[in-house]
Amino acid sequence: MLNVSAMPLNQSSGIGNHSAPPWFGGIMVYHPIIIPVMYGIISVIGLTGNSLVIYVVMKYARVKSVTYLYILNLALADELFVLLLPLSAASIGLETWPFGTVMCKIALYVDTLNQFVSIFCLTVLSVDRFVAVACPVISVNRRNTRMARTVNISVWVISLVVSSPVVIFANTDTADQHETHLITCNLHWPEHVSSTMGEAWVIYTFTLGFAVPLIIIVTCYSLMTRRLCDSVKSNTVQRNQSRRNREKAIKKVERLVAVVVTVFVICWLPFYIFQIANLSRAFSGLELDTAAGLFYFTIILSYANSCCNPVLYAFFDENFKKSFQEALKIRPKIRLTKHLAPSQAYNTFYSRRTELVTMTVKSTVPMTTADTRMDTLKLPNCVPTPEMSKHIGQEQSGPSARKHFQQEI
């Protein structure tokens, strides 16, 4: 059996993403260029995307709801992880660990911490959606940003505790293989129970960091689906507009959370299947290159999850999409007919064919946050009529002009 302490970081620590097969004899077969490059790509995308998520949630009011605070917590965990991922890339590229014992403990600890915080955040998101749908009274009274912050802190405290064995057993080691002096960063279990502890750790992380949370998530979504179906069947009276809008908003958030959870499972399930199968020696008959390929595929897939979520938010959440566009200064080009005085505001109308018609509303009142809410309206095939232009050109106060303008529309 291979001495796992003779493996570089990300190949043999026995934690989360670092559990190398004990039957990988000799030096692990890997490509010291391709894998670091892939790690680097994940790190760059993850840093950019998660930084944008953090910035957007902190800056824009429309993404400061309870759900988005939980998403912020998830982004913080992914951000912390991808910050240290370049160390793993460098370790594989250099075929040694040059960063010392302290950074070894930190890198392995953050890896495990990311695993637990991520799945715990997704569990909290799922429970939160269930409460919002199944217990609306409790949702109104208890679901608030203060409670969300308390839950987020609790997630980190619990994750720090369940990941604590890594700080104790992570260490560097020196080995000479093929006339090469290697410094490695791994988990070093007590020698007399090394094999047993390694297997126990895989089961421990799988149970607490995947299986149990996934059962809770599936249960919440099953109950939610049943509750929504029962609500539709029992509702024989036409619902009012506000209730329909609320249910539509709830379904959008549920879809976002469901997609994020599904992607998490897709990214992590192969890794855990590999780990559990490895415990039963299911791969012992495979060629070394094939086994190494499977091993690295599952690791890279699990790492990729840390850069997927911002992309999902941009595609499946309209609030995030708009906030991303504002943060990145992505705005539609507007053709102005003339220069406007500082006291004038703009109202831009978009048709279904995205044709732009720029109009000017003069106002004697300084622009405020409330005044700018009429800046952009989406109207089908909106073309200014002579009557509209007449009213728009009138000198009126800000609120009065806006009221008349709305009536004309």
UniProtKB/TrEMBL annotation:
Transmembrane as UniProt keyword: yes
Residues in G-protein coupled receptors family 1 profile domain copies: 49-313
PROSITE patterns associated with the record: G_PROTEIN_RECEP_F1_1 (PS00237), G_PROTEIN_RECEP_F1_2 (PS50262)
Taxonomy, superkingdom: Eukaryota
GO biological process: neuropeptide signaling pathway
InterPro entries assigned to the protein according to its UniProt record, in alphabetical order: GPCR_Rhodpsn (IPR000276), GPCR_Rhodpsn_7TM (IPR017452)
Keywords: Cell membrane, G-protein coupled receptor, Membrane, Receptor, Transducer, Transmembrane, Transmembrane helix
Transmembrane portions of the chain: 33-57, 69-93, 113-138, 150-170, 201-224, 253-274, 294-316
Entry's Gene Ontology molecular function annotations: G protein-coupled receptor activity; neuropeptide binding
Membrane topology: Multi-pass membrane protein
Compartments, as annotated in UniProt: Cell membrane
Keyword Flavoprotein: no
Major subcellular location class: membrane
Pfam families: 7tm_1
Region (Disordered): 388-409
CC per GO annotation: neuron projection; plasma membrane
CDD domains: 7tmA_Opioid_R-like
Gene3D superfamilies referenced in this protein's UniProt entry, alphabetically: Rhodopsin 7-helix transmembrane proteins (1.20.1070.10)
SMART domains: 7TM_GPCR_Srsx
Family: Belongs to the G-protein coupled receptor 1 family.
Protein name (Swiss-Prot/TrEMBL): SSTR2 protein
Species whose genome carries this gene: Branchiostoma lanceolatum (Common lancelet)
